[in-house]
Structures are given as C-alpha cells and as structure tokens.
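chain below, 395 aa
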Amino acid sequence: MRNGHVDVAVIGGGAAGLMCAQVAAARGLKVLVLERANRVGKKILMSGGGRCNFTNTGTGPDNYLSANPHFCKSALARYTPWHFLELVERHRIAWHEKELGQLFCDESSKLIVRMLLDECQQVGVRIETGCDITAVDVGDGGRFHIDSRLGRTTAGRLVVASGGLSIPSMGASGFGYELARRFGHEVLPTRAGLVPLTLSGRHQQRLEGLSGVSLPVQASCNGASFRNAMLVTHRGISGPAILQISSYWQPGDALGIDLLPGEDALELLQRWQRERADAELKTLLSEAMPRRFAQRLCEHWLPSRPMKQYTPPQLRQMAGTLSAWPLVASGTEGYRTAEVTLGGVDTDGVSSSTFESRHVPGLHFIGEVLEVTGWLGGYNFQWAWASGHAAGQAV
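prediction:
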C-alpha cells in the first residue's frame, strides 16, 4: 500500500476511528488507519481508571452538549449501547455496571482495544502508528492525497477521527480542526470539558490542607445540575459532580454547590436546634459530612456555637450557605487533564446520518473532533462508537 491506493483512509486510531475502519472494511473496502501516536487507543487505555467506562445504558441526546442538540440523534438511535455491549460479550469481556448506567470492564481497558484490533484484523484493516500527516489535498476526480511517512496515499474517502485537544500527552492535537478549516468548515471555539476547576486567593487558601477530602454535593451552573461526589484537590475542586458541571461553566459564571444534597438545610438546622440544642454546629455537621471539611466550614463560613444560641435569621443565613456554598472558581486545569474538548467542527457543515462534509464530497468527520460533547460516564465513548459506525456504513 506504499504510495498506494485505498478506498478509505481514517486519520486517528482512537475509539471512533477504529470503529469506523472495522465497519467500512467489513463491507469489503480497503481501509488504512493513520495514527499519529506510537499506539492506537491511548485514551481508551487510560479511561475509567484503566477499566474503560465503555458505554452508558442510559445514553440519549440529552446527555450531549452541542450548538445543534438534534445532530447526535440519528447516529445514537442507529447504534445503541446494547449494540456495543453485544460486541463486548461476543469477545467474552467481563463487565459490570458501576452506577448510573456506567458499564466498565471487570479487568482491563486493554481488552477493549484488543477487541477493536481483532475486529479490524479480521476484515483486513491496515493500521499504521507513528504516522504524522504532512499534507492532505484533493486531486482530480475528488480523490484525497495524504502525505505521511508512508509516502503518498490516495484514498477515495477520508475520515477525520483525530479527536480534540484534551490530554496532549496522549498525542492530542488540533490537526482535525486545521484540516476542517482548510476544507471550508467552521470550527466553533474550543475549551476544556470534564475538567477539574481551580481556585485562587482566599477561596483556595480556605481549603488548604483538605486535598483528598470527598463528599456528596449537588453542583449547578447555567441551568444544569449534577449530584455526585466533589473532591478537594491541591489546586481546587474535582470529582464527578465538578467534572460534569465544568462543561457548563466558564470563568465569571456563578457556580452553585449544595453541600447537603437531598436535604432541606433549614429544616435540618431547625431540627437540630429542637432535638440537640446543646450540641455544637461543627459536631452535628461532622455527622453529615467529613469531619475535617465540617470544621473548615465552621472556621470560615459558619461560626460554630451550640445550636440553642442561633436566632431564626441566623439559621436561615446558615441554611443558605450550606445549600449554596459561596465558592468562586477561577479557572480549570485545562486540556492537560480534561477528559474531552468542548467545541469543534461545526455540525451544520456535516450530515447527521453519514457524517459527510457538506462542502467536500467524500470527507467525513466523526467522534470528538465534532462539536458534540457527552457527559461523564461512558457517553463520549458511545458517541465515538455511534458516529464511527454511521460513517463506516456510509463511506
């Protein structure tokens, strides 16, 4: 295939690219995958703490952020979590449901990569790693010319599955966005998503020494709300609830954190005042949340006294602090630790059924490079499988 011709060239050997390649090759097409990193599926390997949260059984369009919320519907409807689960079970990979529909491998994420590679091998997909692409253009007859260390490859169809900017140490780059712009596509502004938030000034100082403390919260911003764990870090806050809300938050936005999710804070304080009047607030809060965190709250936000000493207005003020903790985030940890990239190739220029460019026939965009971003919990992998499958059938 050196200086050769293929039916389909796929740029990117991640989840979407490998799925697309396998589906296309199963239709009898000659498929080449070009991966920039030294191995394929790097983000799959590191995901889910090495166990790969490979899908979510509750996946639906509402679990995705996009300027066009309808764009993801077609692909998600045609390739569901159950389709991918059937593939996982056919390869005898043991799995379990952790919480909220999240499915993980029992053993290792390596098994998912192995499964995808085995599927590709069975249908003759050729995969080349360490393959930086130096040029892409369209020649006469609409065929694509791709220059890389392989020399020049000519392809009838080109699929861009190069991902976003998150975790550059894994080989992430803006190549897909540059390519899209070169072919006349608009790229919507990108930013880190599913990422820890950072604190500065007194907000950071007040939490100093609490790194590693975790507690359940309800985090809200711009109409979105997630109930899960919050983790205090050296530089700010993280944990599932914070990662989720980070995709909706931008600097300057108000961040709502309910430290007693599911509880009416005022009712709880009033009950403590009635039933445990002599107990100190910090003692009672230590029963509802980690002791060190409760003590720090009382040092800086809620002066601790025996419950009988608080007036009704003071109880209301304290309840307000507990249900809307006044913490101001200053930024995020950025692409270095972000699980996904928000923004990307504008879906208005791409078909939602075939993922083909509306500007350049034969050019397709799939996966994270598109302006479609899922929640935490297996949704981004399901988007990769679904968009890759749809494009694989269409090329």
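The longest strand covers residues 151-160. The chain has a mean pLDDT of 96.
thats it, cya
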